[in-house]
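Is pyridoxal-5'-phosphate placement plausible here? Inputs below.
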Amino acid sequence: MANSSVFYRSASPYPVAVRGAGSYLWDESGKRYLDAASGALVCNLGHGLTRIAEAMAAQARTLQYVHGSQFSSAIYERYAERLSQLAGGGYRFWACSGGSEAVESAIKLARQWQVERGESGRFKVIARMPSYHGASLGALASSGMGSRRALYTPLLREEAFPKIPAPDPALPGLQDAAQLEAEVERQGEDRVAAFLAETVVGAADPALAPAEGYFQEIAAICRRHGLLYIADEVMCGMGRCGQPMAFSRYGVRPDVVVLGKGLAAGYAPLAGILVKEEIFAELMAGSGRFTHGYTYSGHPVSLAAGEAVLDILWEEELFGRAGVLGARLEQGLRQIGDPRVLKLRREGLMLGLVLGDPESAGPFPRPGLAARVGRAAMERGLIVYPGSGAADGTRGDHLLLGPPFNATEGEIDLICELLQSSLAATA
Ligand SMILES: Cc1ncc(COP(=O)(O)O)c(C=O)c1O
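Reply from A.M.:
I modeled the complex. Tokens:
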């Protein structure tokens, strides 16, 4: 570490990765790691696929960059159409490079759309607690994740991002959704631009999904009060929950869908928002432009990676396989029998283990168990995604698992075995 020039994320030493293939990564010492978290639920097709690398290289040789204020590109046109179809059709795709950028885009779009409709008093985006929408200041302000926000609160415009509680799956969906209507009334309908929610919560409270009826009611409330309904599917979308878009299970059609992570499966930075055709049309008929953009929006090489990912997802029937593997992983995890696993949640191939005190059936007084299990897992050559703070912003430990959709059954079983031993080794 002392003779490195890298600004690491933390003081703990990192292994240096040199190669990836399938569900595994190798570090420079030759140690192998089974990637049960696909990075952070990104590498949905595993590592080292030459077909994607070749599609990117071919795109780079043909057209590597155009600026979004000057050109569209053939790959952008093609990919946007395919992605819109994947979401049920009737969407326009705005591409950028990461989930936080995409969330910022959705927030700014909501504001601009309201202004163009003559609703210039509307700017607030109601979001939920817990939730995670990104690290940039707007996305962080909209996030309900105490552990990642605390240091930066003086920079966050809290009044622009009121929060309602994330749904409790044990409660009727309608009852939970009614909290949005109450909040719109509290804030004043003429001040609220949008509602932002992860369809299935990821990093902040893993694999938390609402009861039936919740999102239908959310969509109805948004319509009634003139709000854009923004579904953040950066983590739970693109097949992670067993179907192309997580929202489709709830029979709703969000106005804006935020995508990232699995879009290009870690082969290139790619994210963006799908925006209903009518909203795009209103903007174009109004001011004629979206007053927003990044230098790398719609990067052709990232889009080529995204297109190759789509081809593989379809050809190898991986949307369906995610659910099958998820069921196997759930079954294996249920055998672990560690009493500190208080809850096990699963949506497709996204699994959340809520850890806590078996006596109180609540969180331990201080967080840290998940991080310790994560370290024990790394020692054993297993990568998981630990987190904390779901209980009250600080307390609460959890693990998120999301192996690649093309992992083998043997690898799924090995994840359970290694996780069991990591939990057993952690006090
Ligand atoms: C649901 C959700 N939204 C947004 C983001 C932010 O994405 P990024 O880290 O690519 O900026 C994340 C990242 O974990 C996420 O899980």
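Short version: The longest helix spans residues 99-116.
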